[in-house]
Prior knowledge:
This protein is 36% helix and 13% strand. The chain is built from 17 helices and 13 strands. By secondary structure, it is of the alpha/beta class. It folds into two domains: 2-333, Alpha-Beta Barrel (TIM Barrel); 344-447, no CATH class. Strands 6-3-2-1-9-8-7 form a seven-stranded parallel beta sheet. Strands 11-10-12-13 form a four-stranded mixed beta sheet.
Amino acid sequence: xxxxxxxxxxxxxxxxxxxFDLDEVKADLDSIAALGLDHIRVFPLWPVFQPNRTFVRPxxxxxxxxxxxxxxxxxxxxxxxxxxxxxxxxxxxxSWTATWHRRNLFTDEExxxxxAEYIRTLAAALHGRPNFLGMTxxxxxxxxxxxxxxxxxxxxxxxxxxxxxxxxxxCEQGAPGRTHLHAEYDAAWYQDGHPFTPGQAANLGAxxxxxxxxxxxxxxxxxxxxxxxxxxxxxxxxxxxxxxADPERPVWxxxxxxxxxxxPPEGAAAFTEATVAAAADCEHMWGxxxxxxxxxxxxxxxFPELEYDLGLLTNAREPKPAxxxxxxxxxxxxxxxxxxxxxxxxxxxxxxxxxxxTAPHRSVCAPGGxxxxxxxxxxxxxxxPAAVLASRAGDTAxxxxxxxxxxxxxxxxxxxxxxxxxxxxxxxxxxxxxTPSVRSAAARTSEEKNxxx
Length: 453
């Protein structure tokens, strides 16, 4: 497993690209490397790098290369996000997509070609660097595609699919053979009708990226130390595998953090340790990348309160307790044998078989949903649950490839009328009042030809 951090500069936040200071960057990278981490994720600001549709600033690209080289000198590999896009509640869109030039980010042909050229340019500039891992298309750019964004760029699932494939092709054209991927916030997994789908997330690109944030209702329902909270990242990792065609597809926990007050500051280190331990117990994990490296300077205005203190390090580059926890976890989990397969799988029915990739009813997977609460209850009982689509629950070859020998339905774990009390008991660490009804995959195959029966 790899262990890294999302790099937030200690001086000026991501506005540092406007006053790029390589010495300041090097000092930040020194403080990251001192934690024993091995990679960073870097965020160019899109309007700063591409202020005009046909102009990518050479000086900005040069500064990105300088940052990458400085990271290499400190033993840090680099993944680069391109379309920023959206960061910590602020949108950064170039003027050629807004107001008088308002055009859809995902469907307007000129905008899409401009995006592709920008991505190709960054990828090509970094291709010769041995510590360049590859490109991520953008930071949670799916938030622009639907509500709750106040001015979304609406697109259909098919249009988003075409956009993702075109952007990933641009990455490959610029830097052939590198690890290129896309990454969404959890609406892709949890929000009915969202045009970015679980099928896209789990099958397009070199690996699946998961962004796990427990302020999405998880910590509110289950508390800061509830099993569902401490294993939320592991749940999303396992959920992603339900849609993956390749049973060995790698998964990257690309964003996870300890947001206050949902995770109290005094509990951040314990949350970090528990989150990493649960994620590391999932097969085919590429790595964990914590959000984020340094706190946001409180001289900067208008951030949501929780954004200011997410750093592992202060603005003075001093490590906080969570930094020590991640450093210890990295040292503990690197080089460990791969975890054993998860033999018990929870059935995920998020829509009809013919629509499984789009998951029209994927809200069953969200906090409070039948799948989410059943998975949490199983985990609280000491089970190591996997997840399998209802349409694949009778596919013996698929189950065997994943090492699954038993399956269970959500209603067998948490009947709808008892779901909330059951979840609260699990969160409180109370003994389970029931034993899950689990049947072998082989038995279920012979009993149920209809996966929705």
